[in-house]
Amino acid sequence: MDLRNLRYFLTVAEQGGFTAAAEQLHIAQPAVSMAIRKLEQQLGLPLFDRQERRIRLTDEGEVLLRHARIILQAVNDAERDMRELHTLERGEVRVGIPSMLGSYYFPPILMAFRHHYPGVRLEVIEAGTRKLQQMIHQGEIDMGVIVCDTPPEDLETHCFLHAQMMAILPADHALAQARTITYDAFFTEELVLFKEGYFHREVIDRISREAGVTPRIGFEANLIPLIKQIVSHGYGISTLLEMVVADDPGLVAVPFSPAVWLELSLAWRKGHRLSRANQTFVDLVLQHAERDHNR
């Protein structure tokens, strides 16, 4: 069924005549009459009783009128939704971010996205990178942040941050003024670490295995303010990104020797076409990363 002919039919029915409908549609009256005849021929049913001076709908036309209103309203709604999505007046982004980056790297990005696209619903889920990969596979989130040392073959990845993992010490620690800290020296200390499943914990577990040592873990916590408090009071040392302690005079970030670098990427299912809202979010993250790199 031709939607244009259906629109003409609805207009004739609502205006009560072909001439009035033509004026409403801003087309010639014969074009309206021809469209209605084609619709009647296609359906094999009369839609208007033309015997009287003012045309009226037949019983068949009354039935079609009810459907025409529903169909055309649905089409109008779909067209409006597509326009809004195209201009990002609507949409949804579901992104998973580990707590460290969610607290110290992503806030300006999230606020900028919200400022530019207030109609887009932005949902941020906090979890470790392994959990986020699982959520991507299960369709619970559109994308997530992962460590891209060995990119999963079934995920599309775009690196946005090349960051150094640092040993975090209280300012009065004996090694606080050292230029670097060896793995052996680090593992002789009591440690305050994130729980398993978070990227920085996985790196420490890997390094300890390679070094053949068992870490002395005094505290396990995923709350960054708590970790910083524990370290600053001298109850252990930890590992964080330098950005986390940049404004904390009670803590010092010391590079490892050899250095530990992390490649952090946004990831989503390979072969899955991102929505316009999601692609715009990815573009914003990558633009932010490029600006930081060029500073």
TrEMBL record:
Residues 1-58 form the HTH lysR-type domain. Keywords: DNA-binding, Transcription, Transcription regulation. Gene3D superfamilies: 3.40.190.290, Winged helix-like DNA-binding domain superfamily/Winged helix DNA-binding domain. Pfam families: HTH_1, LysR_substrate. GO terms for cellular component: cytosol. GO terms for molecular function: DNA binding; DNA-binding transcription factor activity. Transmembrane segments: none annotated. Coiled coil: none annotated. Belongs to the LysR transcriptional regulatory family. This is LysR family transcriptional regulator. It comes from Marinobacterium marinum.
